[in-house]
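Recall that a protein's primary structure is simply its ordered list of amino acids. Everything else, from secondary elements to tertiary packing, is in principle encoded there. The following example makes that idea concrete.
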Amino acid sequence: MNKALIIISHGSRSQDAVNAFNQIVELVRAKGGFDQVAGAAMEHNEPTIPQAIAQVTETGVQEIIFAPYFLYEGIHIKEDIPHMLNEIAPDYPDVTFKLAKPLGPESVLADILFERALAVK
């Protein structure tokens, strides 16, 4: 099955934040496992979520996993993104949309936060 991953960020007016997000997308792409990996932003940046969907479906993708690059299950995760995907899905009747969970409270994130705090001089 031709499968794509779209990593969703909130988006930012900061070019440094955009660059950091693009680095994450590249790191995930390098891991393999998907026919395509793309980044998308909810606001401020392109591609938008609809633009990213249009891009990855040009090659016959049958399934898209949407992975939010968010820490918590806030309103964007619980309402905004699902609503947007539900509105767009009928335009792609041959493509299955699946939404992954956000990053959440993971011990690896606690480890990184702890290490960064200890590194402050």
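The chain has a mean pLDDT of 96. The two ends are 50 Å apart (CA to CA).
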